[in-house]
Specification:
Helices cover 55% and strands 6% of the residues. With 405 residues, the protein is mostly helical. β5 and β6 form a beta hairpin.
């Protein structure tokens, strides 16, 4: 399963195998391998940026799983609905080797999955979609090369130096020349064609670079998502106009219509959102505090919560600390110190004075290290914001009260 791909204008010939390797006798295609690599890199990027967007990586996993499953389902459904192919059985419909999936259907499915999963796992939706949009561009930039190995998703004839031709492109155009003519697409099977997969891959790679640079300057949550919709839609509109295998309704290219509509909608929504948020600071969600941080704040009340701030590299302002305290209060209920003391078993005393001194010294050292990492507490009552230290030996009730959601 190899194709000889020629770029006549460049004088280049490449032998392109469809199969990457075999596993237990089953062929593993480059198409699937490249999609997997794109997905993996997108996940690595998303988790590395999670705290910058105020997202909890652990909860993100559930959102990603739900979004991925619905992306596959909707991407396949989109392809089946608008493809010229006919499917005799249900198993033909779900066989991804027969035509594959449509990217726009996958995007729609991922969006639906994100809405459902974010509500279920209590994850901020718009920051999650912002991060997902950049992940999409990574996956699309790499995954589109799977079309090159399959010799599919190419365009009509071109005299450009990078025009390509292979046995697969020639055979496809010969089989479908009459059908394409009915749709107004005139082709010569013996001539080179546009490598539209390459155009889209480069377009997505450039889009990722621009959005990555913009992420620190975004004005509101959801802005990166809107820029993705506009950027990808604009590129896809022109690229789709070149393709010889578009999904159509009659002579209308479905993905081209979707692309144009998404650009218009994206611009309108961005203008409205920008006006509403003009002059307002970006509201970054607060990652739920770590369990150890909650235990340190136990019994001090919501206004005196110490909040861990590792992701931003700077101490929060007074206003930010107040917001952090309010957010952190949603994730735990401070234990009642009186009840905790009454119910808690007595901690065992050290066996020797030397051990007692060592334990005390270690506790003081730990408290100093923690205070160096955690930000200053925000106290509603100055009398409560004393030099109270965390308890050295938390009891079982302490542990239970300190667990986050």
């Amino acid at each position: 399963m190899e194709n000889l791909v020629t770029f006549p204008g460049l004088g280049i010939e490449i032998v392109v195998p469809r199969v990457a390797f075999t596993l237990f006798g089953a062929p593993i295609y480059w198409y699937g391998v490249l999609i997997g690599i794109g997905l993996l890199l997108a996940l690595v990027f998303a988790f590395s940026q999670a705290k910058r967007f105020g997202l909890d990586p652990e909860r993100m996993v559930d959102v990603i799983i739900v979004g991925f499953v619905l992306a596959i389902v909707c991407g396949r459904l989109y392809y089946v609905l608008f493809s010229d192919q006919t499917y005799a059985t249900f198993f033909d419909v779900i066989d991804l080797r027969s035509g594959g999936i449509a990217i726009y259907g996958g995007i729609i499915g991922a969006f639906i999955g994100a809405v459902i999963a974010c509500k279920w796992r209590k994850v901020a939706l718009l920051p999650m979609l912002d991060l997902t949009a950049m992940g999409f561009l990574i996956g699309q930039a790499i995954g589109r090369w799977g079309n090159f190995f399959n010799q599919e998703a190419f365009g009509d004839n071109t005299a450009a130096p990078w025009g390509m031709i292979s046995a697969e492109t020639t055979a496809y155009l010969q089989r479908n020349q009459a059908l394409l003519a009915e749709k107004g697409i005139m082709v010569d099977p013996a001539m080179p064609v546009h490598p539209t997969f390459l155009y889209e891959s480069l377009w997505c790679a450039l889009g990722f670079l621009l959005l990555f640079l913009w992420r620190k300057r975004r004005h509101f949550n959801g802005e990166i998502l809107l820029f993705y919709v506009i950027w990808y839609g604009a590129g896809r509109f022109f690229i789709e106009g070149l393709r010889t295998d578009p999904l159509t309704v009659g002579s209308v290219r479905v993905s081209q219509v979707v692309a144009a509509a998404s650009v218009v909608a994206g611009v309108v929504i961005w203008v409205i959102a920008r006006r509403k948020t003009a002059g307002k600071p970006l509201n970054v969600p607060v990652v739920p505090p770590h369990a150890a941080t909650v235990r340190l704040a136990e019994g001090r009340g919501p206004a005196a919560v110490r909040v861990w701030w590792p992701a931003y590299g700077k101490a929060p302002t007074r206003e930010e600390k107040q917001v952090l305290a309010q957010e952190a209060a949603q994730y735990f209920v401070p234990a009642d110190k009186t009840e905790a003391k009454a119910e808690a078993p007595q901690a065992e005393a050290p066996e020797t004075k030397t051990e007692a001194k060592a334990d005390a010294g270690q506790a003081d050292k730990t408290a100093e290290e923690v205070d160096a990492v955690l930000t200053d507490e925000t106290a509603a009552d100055p009398a409560e914001a004393t030099d109270e230290k965390p308890r050295d030996n938390p009891t079982q009730e302490d542990e239970d009260a300190g667990k986050t959601d």
